[in-house]
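Please decode residue identities from the backbone states below.
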């Protein structure tokens, strides 16, 4: 029996500071604790901080792959529950301003990865750059993290608008973060989805909401994923529910994707921006 192909999930936010990396890391660790093989690609190449959230130190990062000093396999580090991380290049300004051809070249190194992953979680940068959209286009599932705040809502909507109208993407899932209740999260989703349906002639899907929880900050200060630091906390339970719902997503998308598929789609998307 053939192994199901790798599920590739992009996590975006539009606006920074809404907990995108916290979501990526805790989702990855929870999936791994449920027996899945998971890797995070920290594609926020200008302000990479996934390694901090995982509580691990990466001696090398993606810039060493770009320069040819290291191979991709040599920069990968392992974190909690066996989650693997491709570290971003924090603080290296040139990495944050890569052009289309450079981005396409970078992603080619992912052909080094053997297809033994259940999930590749791509934690993209904030904003609407071509690189961000190329990564999101190449994913099978797309999660947009939003807080119930005017600027975050506006930026999340802008992100969704670009995905639908300019890139013709579907399988877009909204993840309200830091809400007071699941009901508040569901209301936030409904209000945004109504606008998407009315003005963009599209629709988004609801996954789950992550509750506001002071233990999230405590876990960040301790440089640990919340699901390990405070597994009984309200938000940790939400991440458990989120992971189980994400595991059901693979039933909804044709399993024709793998790492090579991801590479080819990013390269094609970036090439289309050049032409």
């Amino acid at each position: 029996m053939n192994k199901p192909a790798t599920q590739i999930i992009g996590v975006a936010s539009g606006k920074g500071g809404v907990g995108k990396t916290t979501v990526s890391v805790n989702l990855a660790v929870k999936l791994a604790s449920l027996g899945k093989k998971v890797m995070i690609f920290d594609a926020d190449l200008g302000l990479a901080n996934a390694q901090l959230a995982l509580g691990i130190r990466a001696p090398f990062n993606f810039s060493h792959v770009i320069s040819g000093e290291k191979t991709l396999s040599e920069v990968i580090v392992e974190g909690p529950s066996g989650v693997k991380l491709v570290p971003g290049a924090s603080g290296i300004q040139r990495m944050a301003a890569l052009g289309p051809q450079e981005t396409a070249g970078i992603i080619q190194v992912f052909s080094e990865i053997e297809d033994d992953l259940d999930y590749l979680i791509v934690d993209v940068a904030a904003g609407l750059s071509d690189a961000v959209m190329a990564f999101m286009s190449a994913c099978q599932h797309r999660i947009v993290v939003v807080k119930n705040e005017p600027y975050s809502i506006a930026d999340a909507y802008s992100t969704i608008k670009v995905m639908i109208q300019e890139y013709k993407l579907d399988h877009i899932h909204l993840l309200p973060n830091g809400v007071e209740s699941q009901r508040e999260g569901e209301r936030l989703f409904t209000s945004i989805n109504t606008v998407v349906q009315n003005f963009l002639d599209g629709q988004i899907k609801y996954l789950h909401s992550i509750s506001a929880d002071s233990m999230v900050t405590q876990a960040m200060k301790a440089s640990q994923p919340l699901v390990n630091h405070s597994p009984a906390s309200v938000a940790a339970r939400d991440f458990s529910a989120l992971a189980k719902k994400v595991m059901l997503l693979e039933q909804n998308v044709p399993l024709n994707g793998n790492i090579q598929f991801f590479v080819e789609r990013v390269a094609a998307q970036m090439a289309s921006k050049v032409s």
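Observation: Residues 182-200 form the longest helix (19 residues).
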